[in-house]
Inverse folding.
């Protein structure tokens, strides 16, 4: 039986392990950061303004941003090329970033253009479980030391569905969480 308590305990144990490892890695690179010009060590790029959730707490879905209004892959490449070796931590955000068909190519671009990358993070609402799990599996196979995916949760069961404005959102989130646990078993750099 998959219970929330065991899920919570597993997440807490994993978080403690990864936080210690990231802190050690950050401390090891801190000296090299100080000797470089003051440029961002963390770069977060909003790759999508589209969202398939209709949250009461966020109105991004009301903007009705089309794919043609989003940054192109070549523009994202240029952004990461321009900061390159200064980026230790890259974030991908949105809307729902995994709605982009080129989500994996964006992660690959970050990996290729940021040779000192230690951490890649992104979030998801978990609604398109199979698509998200497949994309995350591909991203996790990159040789980035730490890859973190956050799941957005606003409550348990119907409360989550109500806040997200989407019937079945909580069940989709749980399916995505179970799939991501399998990704983590295969790729220890993924959390």
């Amino acid at each position: 039986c998959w219970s929330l308590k065991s899920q919570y305990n597993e997440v807490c144990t994993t978080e403690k392990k990864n936080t210690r490892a990231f802190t050690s890695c950050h401390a090891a690179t801190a000296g090299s950061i100080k000797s470089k010009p003051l440029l961002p060590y963390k770069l977060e790029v909003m790759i999508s303004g589209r969202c398939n959730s209709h949250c009461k707490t966020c109105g991004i879905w009301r903007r009705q941003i089309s794919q043609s209004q989003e940054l192109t892959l070549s523009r994202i490449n240029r952004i990461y090329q321009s900061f390159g070796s200064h980026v230790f931590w890259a974030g991908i955000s949105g809307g729902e970033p995994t709605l982009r068909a080129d989500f994996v190519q964006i992660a690959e671009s970050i990996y290729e253009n940021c040779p000192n990358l230690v951490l890649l993070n992104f979030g998801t609402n978990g609604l398109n479980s199979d698509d998200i799990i497949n994309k995350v599996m591909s991203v996790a196979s990159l040789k980035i030391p730490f890859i973190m995916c956050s799941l957005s949760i606003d409550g348990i069961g119907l409360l989550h569905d109500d806040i997200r404005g989407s019937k079945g959102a909580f069940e989709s989130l749980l399916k995505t969480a179970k799939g991501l646990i399998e990704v983590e078993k295969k790729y220890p750099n993924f959390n």
Notes: Residues 4-34 form the longest helix (31 residues). Residues 1-33 have pLDDT under 50 and may be disordered. The chain is about 45% helix and 15% strand.
